[in-house]
Amino acid sequence: MVWNSLTWLVQVVVFPGFLTLIALALFYEWVDRKFVAKLQNRYGPLHVGPHGLLQPIADLIKLLSKEDITPFAADRVIFAASPLILLASPLTALLFIPMSGVYSTVGFEGDLLLVLFLFMLPMIAIFLGSWASANRFTAVGAVRATLQLLAYEVPMGMAAIGTAIAARSLSISRIVAWQAGSGVWLAV
């Protein structure tokens, strides 16, 4: 009887994983706001929904209804394309990571280098977006953000190449298969 209840709970809560992730993200945002408000001796979100639970949804609606403003001197194509590149590159990199088993959705020999490049592409998109805005203050902020992101790129690349050398392959699927077959876990 307990097993049937557990199976039902898994089918209802875990199976629609994307909706569960969205609901949990909204709930954790609410918890974070309440916690920070408590630290600052405030009430936090109260008025939207019961106990302010719908405040993150109201904030999302407000964000989506805002007007997109492009600076007058901006390069409009690069300025509009940089957020798309910023979002698309990590999502594209997910196609090369084996999610179930050894094989990925898309894979070839050398896909590790492509994934490293796709993880570096948001840094380039941030810099291009600020450069396209033709504002010196956004350029200073983008240089700062780029240097902060570059700080983890070098160690991540060295760890990934070390893993590839140990597995003798630049294919992520082959690296995972080597780890599964050898029993050695390469923690990156």
Topology:
Layout (H helix, E strand, L loop, with lengths): L1 H13 L2 H23 L15 H10 L11 H18 L17 H22 L3 H32 L4 H11 L6
Helix pairs in contact: 4-5, 5-6
Structure commentary:
The chain is an all-alpha fold. The protein has 2 domains: 2-64, no CATH class; 76-182, no CATH class. It contains 7 helices and no strands. It starts with a helix and ends in a 6-residue tail after the last helix. Helix 4 runs antiparallel to helix 5 (111-132) and helix 5 (111-132) runs antiparallel to helix 6.
How helix-rich are the residues, as a percent range?
Answer: 55-70%
Structural class: mainly alpha
Reading the helices and strands in chain order gives: HHHHHHH
Q: Quick check: average pLDDT?
A: 85
The CA-CA distance between the termini, in Å, is 42 Å
Model regions low in confidence, pLDDT < 50 over at least 5 residues: none
Gross geometry? extended
Tell me the fraction of residues in β-strands, as a range: under 5%
**Biggest beta sheet summary:** none
Q: Report Rg.
A: 22 Å
Count of helical stretches: 7
Number of beta-strand segments: 0
How many discrete structural domains?
2
